[in-house]
Amino acid sequence: MKVDVNTIVFPLPNNELLEVVELSLRVSFPETYKNFIKGNNGAVPITNKFSYNQREYIIEKFLCILNDSESDPINGWYDIEVIITQIGDRLTDNEDLVGMNVVPIAALFLGDFICLDFRETEEPTVVIWFHEESEEFSPVTQKVAPNILDFFGLLS
Questions:
Q1: How far is residue 135 from each of residues 75, 84, 120, 121, 142, measured CA to CA in Å?
Q2: How many CB atoms are closer than 10 A to CB 11?
Q3: Do 84 and 90 form a contact (C-beta atoms < 8 A)?
Q4: What confidence score (pLDDT) does residue 137 get?
Q5: How far is CA 134 from CA 61, 88, 108, in A?
Q6: How much is the pTM?
Q7: 15-25 vs 80-87: helix axis angle to the nearest 10?
């Protein structure tokens, strides 16, 4: 996968910041994703298309992890925790859940998101979350890859 290096959001997250976010969300990101975001935080992919179920999808931008989203008015809107604050009730089917079990990592064209889905396996699958069909505590997702590495391999 290739990204536009001019779109990477600085400062890049370090291990300490990733641990804080993981604790907040109560998830453990896969190493492949951690390594990706530590070098490509919030980047716009050049290889941004993938096909699934006879349909083509376009990634607009990978989400970022910022220490202080308010200090970056442009990229702050693409911070993972900011996105979760906006749509979190529509990302989970468990209103008693502390943390998250579906975590957005990339914005798709027209408001959907690519997410890491921790609901069924320890290593998260990669799903598309459909914003128009999802309701509070009733997310609509479609699995597109068994893991993040396989998802990266889908991008062209």
A1: 26, 14, 20, 23, 15
A2: 10
A3: no
A4: 93
A5: 21, 11, 15
A6: 0.95
A7: 10
Cα separation, 115 vs 120, in Å, equals: 14
DSSP state for residue 38 in the 8-state scheme = H
Task: Please give the full DSSP string across 21-33, using - where no structure is assigned.
Answer: HHHHHT----HHH
Mean pLDDT of the chain, nearest integer: 95
Q: Are 129 and 91 in contact (CB under 8 A)?
A: yes
Tokens of 17: 């910041």
pLDDT tens string 98-147: 889 999 999 998 899 999 999 988 799 999 999 999 999 999 999 999 99
Residues 6 or more apart from 48 whose CB is under 8 A from it? Answer: 58, 59, 60, 155
Which tens digits make up the pLDDT trace of 9-22?
A: 999 999 999 999 99
Q: According to the model, what pLDDT value does residue 15 have?
A: 98
Tokens of 54: 């006879």
Q: Could you count the other beta carbons within 10 Å of the beta carbon of residue 12? A: 15
Catalogue the E-assigned strands of 48-145.
49-52, 55-62, 102-108, 113-117, 125-129, 141-145
